[in-house]
Every structure is written in structure tokens, then in C-alpha cells.
Specification:
It is built from 15 helices and 20 strands. With 504 residues, it is α/β, with parallel strands linked by helices. The structure holds ligand BES, manganese (II) ion and zinc ion. Ligand BES binds next to helix 11.
């Protein structure tokens, strides 16, 4: 898909726009947006509304051909709901409906003339991102493993956003917002592709090679540590998870030093379990295939790097990915085994299926060396997080002090701004009690109660040296059932958060 911005003014008007399809908004009470009015000189749109062919409800659409009064081949009317307040929710529905309609049109090019500047509490940049992501989401296909590729999706390939009566500065801002939206969509696509690939293809080595390719394309620094180097670092906790697997573990470090040399970096740590069988604490068979998605934290770090690399973000960012499989075997870690983490803390592995925290804790110790301004880990960590928050919000955990509240608020705000939301959960000493072990410093599970919180509490013990947040994306990273597939979350949240940090 190819995107651009087109400006319109008193001389260069919308009704004269030669395009395969122009999308304009209409309201519920038969009122027209400005763009719709501009095409209504002959009353054809008003007549369509009067006829009742389109309700104007958010997401309703009506396609008109050869409209008297418009040079465009087609006009797509898109419902926006109530005229007084175009809410972000209604606009999003309109954007998604536009994307669906554009996807099946015979037109080669299209013009988005929705009211980008009329959305309550949102700006033009937000609206451009909303529409771009909706169009790209609709066009996403995952058929790399199908012997017969799905027929290349029809539909509009060249999309322009109509900007009316705006200054040069607004147009420049819109162009920048568009470039950022496309970069974000590219990052989301990479995250989806990696998540959707099966575990026999998307191995730790495959993730490392993907990171190397990104490093080459965007001039990131890269280091991939192998088992020997991890042993030298004394990552006994991470390595204990790899014991049952034939696939070699990898520890990926990506660096984008786009900020000032002296600025402390922001660090992203992504859980990269390319398949989580549970190990000796084997998972039940039903739905186990979905544990190929247990590397979605890692995939979101790589997708975010793809996005910020394309944006050439002025920020120092480091991505760290501990990646391996969690498999049973005669050599696998057994329940009751005690391992020593890089931090020196000993861990009693009461359940080998609580492996995410075991790989993350060593990565969280490793990143101390970067003296980070903030560390955010991203992990498909607990089924309990799905029980708590469902599939709507990622779980956000931090300590509760001023610095951490500020980090949490920034992440929550980035989630709201990008429609990729998170919800904050507590970390408190009372939950830490549940991780007591009779034989080691700490147990790797805290019992059935508050499972996502005790998992976060486990990680917290390895993050005392810096400001840290944990995102549990178990409920948001992929969809099950007939719509099975990676969502690309939380790349939009992370990228928006980083853009905000780069802006100071
Ligand atoms: N990767 C899983 C968490 C998960 C499960 C994510 C289902 C999405 C869907 C994680 O490694 C795990 O197995 N967690 C256990 C922890 C338990 C043993 C304390 C869980 O959630 O059951
Ligand atoms: Mn597990
Ligand atoms: Zn797991």
C-alpha cells in the first residue's frame, strides 16, 4: 500500500478530485461533513441520506458510483454517528468500515476525506494513524506457509489523505504523522509475522537472524550471545529453561543510539520462548499449538525496533531478548530443582511451566550494565492475566513510588493514545510472601491466587537497580479460535511511548 497527503483549497477543490474512490463522512441526523457538502452541489448525497440507504451510524457505509457533482469515479459515504461529537471510538469504526470497503473495490486509488480534524480530544496525526493502521490491518495476510498463496488482495492500493484549507505547517505535520504511521504499521506486521510463524521455523536462531537483518537495514548495533557466553555470565536461571531443548538458546541485544551519547538508554526486554510445552510440568494438549505465540514479547521488541528504525527516532534504545524453547526431556529441569540466577538469588523451580520469569530475571539482571533510564519488559507471562483482564488490556505492573508512577502513567497514556491499552495492577509486599521457598531464596510460583501479580513480584526482585515496568501481554498478543492470529500488540503502545520520550 502506498500512502500520501493531498492538500485541497478554494482553487483545488474536493469535487474536482480525480480518484477511484473518495471516502467522505456523514452523520446520523442526515447531516453532512464539510467534505460531503463539497460533493453535494447537485444534492445527490442529501438524496441518498433522505432515502434511508445509509443510517449514518458509526461504521455504516454506502457506495455511490458516477455521483453527479464529483469527479471521482466512486464516492463512499461513511457513517460517523452523532454530529456534535465525533468520538475516537466512532471515528475508529468509520476507519475500519472504510478499510473493509476499500479492500474489495476495483479502484486503483482512493482519497480519504474523513473529518481528520474534527475528532474530540484527538488531533489530525491521531486520525491519520487510525486510518492507516485500519487499512494495513485489513490488508494483512499470513500465507507464507501456504503452498497456494491467497489471491493478492484486490482493493485500493494507493491511498491519499485529503487535507483541506490547511497551512504548510499543518501539511508538514500530517506528512510526518503519516510516515510514522506507516513505520508503525510495518513494525506491527513484522511482529504479527514472527508470532504467526510455527515454532519449527521461528526458532531462537530465526529470531536472532531476524534481529541481525534489522540491524543491517537500520544500522542498529547487535550482539547475539550463545550458550557458552550465557554460562560465562552465570545465567543459571535462563539456561535451566533450555535444558530439555535441542534448539540452541540465543540472547539478543539490539542497540539504536539515536539520542545524545550521554543520555541513559530506554531498555525493552522481550520474552522469547519460541515454544512453551510447559517442560516436565507439561501443559494439556488442547490448544498447545498456541504456545508458539510465547515469543510475542520478543516479537514486539523486534517490531518496535523496526518502527523506530524507520522513523530514525532520536532516542537511545536497547532491546534485549532471551530466547529458547521450553521442552521436556531426560535432561530437562525437574520440579524441585534449584537454580542460581545471574543475580546470585537461588530459585526453586516448583513448576517448569513458570519459565517466562526464569528467562526474564537473568535478562533483567543483565541490563543493569546499561544504567538504563527505564526498563520495560514485555511477556506473555501468565494465563492468570487473561483471567484478570481478558483480551482488552495488557497488564501493567510497576512498583508504587513517584518515579514508577510516572513511568506507568506514560505507558498507560501511550496505550490510550494508540488504542493499544493497558491496565495497571498492584505490586505489594503482601504478594511477595507467596513466593517463599523452604529450600531456596525464592520459589518460581506463588500458588493459584493472583498469579499475574506474583509473577510480576518475582520479576520485581531482579529490577532494584533501575526504574522498571512489566507488561503482561498474555491476553492481548494473539487471538484464538477462527480468527487465530497475532495482533501485533503492544507495538503501537511501545512505539507511541518511545515517540513521547524522544519528544522529551
Ligand atoms: N506462556 C505461559 C502463559 C500463558 C498461558 C500465556 C496461556 C497465554 C496463554 C506461561 O509460561 C505459563 O505457562 N504460565 C503459567 C504459570 C503457572 C505455572 C504459575 C500459567 O499461566 O499457567
Ligand atoms: Mn509456561
Ligand atoms: Zn510461557
Amino acid at each position: 500500500m502506498d500512502f500520501s497527503i493531498k492538500t485541497f483549497d478554494a482553487k483545488n477543490t474536493l469535487d474536482g478530485a480525480k480518484t477511484g474512490c473518495i471516502a467522505v463522512g456523514v452523520y446520523e441526523n442526515r447531516k453532512l461533513t464539510q467534505a460531503a457538502q463539497a460533493l453535494d452541489s447537485k444534492g445527490a448525497i442529501s438524496a441518498a441520506l433522505k432515502s434511508g440507504d445509509i443510517s449514518g451510524k458509526p461504521g455504516s457505509t454506502l457506495l455511490l458510483r458516477a455521483l453527479d457533482g464529483a469527479a471521482a469515479t466512486r464516492v463512499l459515504l461513511v457513517g460517523l454517528g452523532n454530529e456534535d461529537t465525533v468520538s475516537d471510538k466512532n471515528f475508529t469504526q468509520a476507519a475500519q468500515a472504510t478499510a473493509r470497503a476499500f479492500a474489495t473495490l476495483g479502484a486503483a486509488d482512493g482519497l480519504i476525506a474523513l473529518p481528520l480534524a474534527a475528532i474530540k480530544e484527538r488531533d489530525v496525526a491521531w486520525a491519520i494513524r487510525c486510518v492507516t493502521l485500519a487499512l494495513r490491518e485489513n490488508a494483512y495476510r499470513c500465507d507464507s506457509q501456504k503452498s497456494k498463496k491467497e489471491a493478492t488482495p484486490e482493493g485500493v492500493k494507493k491511498i491519499a489523505f485529503a487535507l483541506g484549507g490547511s497551512t504548510a505547517a499543518v501539511a508538514t505535520g500530517a506528512r510526518q504523522a503519516l510516515a510514522q504511521s506507516v513505520a508503525l504499521a510495518n513494525g506491527i506486521d513484522l511482529t504479527k509475522d514472527l508470532g504467526n510463524l510455527p515454532a519449527n521455523i521461528c526458532t531462537p536462531t530465526y529470531l536472532a537472524n531476524t534481529a541481525k537483518k534489522l540491524a543491517k537495514d537500520y544500522k542498529f548495533g547487535i550482539e547475539v550471545l550463545d550458550r557458552k557466553q550465557l554460562q560465562a555470565l552465570k545465567m543459571g536461571s535462563f539456561l535451566s529453561v533450555t535444558n530439555g531443548s535441542e534448539e540452541p538458546p540465543k540472547f539478543i541485544v539490539l542497540k539504536h543510539m539515536g539520542g545524545k551519547a550521554k543520555d541513559a538508554p530506554t531498555v525493552l526486554v522481550g520474552k522469547g520462548i519460541t515454544f512453551d510445552s510447559g517442560g516436565i510440568s507439561l501443559k494439556p494438549g488442547a490448544g498447545m499449538d498456541e504456545m508458539k505465540y510465547d515469543m510475542c514479547g520478543a516479537a514486539s521488541v523486534l517490531g518496535t525496533f523496526r518502527a523506530i528504525g524507520e522513523m530514525n527516532l532520536k532516542l537511545n534504545l536497547i532491546g534485549v531478548i532471551p530466547t529458547c524453547e521450553n521442552m521436556p526431556s531426560g535432561r530437562a529441569t525437574k520440579p524441585g530443582d534449584i537454580v542460581t540466577s545471574m543475580s546470585g538469588q537461588t530459585i526453586e523451580v516448583l513448576n517448569t511451566d513458570a519459565e517466562g520469569r526464569l528467562v526474564l530475571c537473568d535478562a533483567l539482571s543483565y541490563v543493569e550494565r546499561f544504567k538504563p533510564a527505564a526498563v520495560v519488559d514485555i511477556a506473555t507471562l501468565t494465563g492468570a492475566c487473561i483471567t484478570a483482564l481478558g483480551h482488552h488490556n495488557s497488564g501493567l505492573f510497576t512498583r508504587h513510588d513517584a518515579a514508577h508512577d510516572a513511568l506507568a502513567d506514560a505507558l498507560l497514556a501511550a496505550g490510550r493514545a494508540s488504542g493499544d491499552t493497558a491496565w495497571r495492577m498492584p505490586i505489594e509486599d503482601s504478594y511477595q510472601e507467596q513466593l517463599k521457598s523452604n529450600f531456596a531464596d525464592i520459589a518460581n510460583i506463588g500458588g493459584p491466587a493472583a498469579g499475574s501479580i506474583t509473577a510480576a513480584c518475582f520479576l520485581e526482585r531482579f529490577t532494584k537497580q533501575y526504574t522498571w515496568a512489566h507488561l503482561d501481554i498474555a491476553g492481548t498478543a494473539w487471538k484464538s479460535g477462527t480468527a487465530k492470529g497475532a495482533t501485533g500488540r503492544p507495538v503501537a503502545l511501545l512505539t507511541t511511548f518511545l515517540l513521547q520520550r524522544a519528544a522529551g
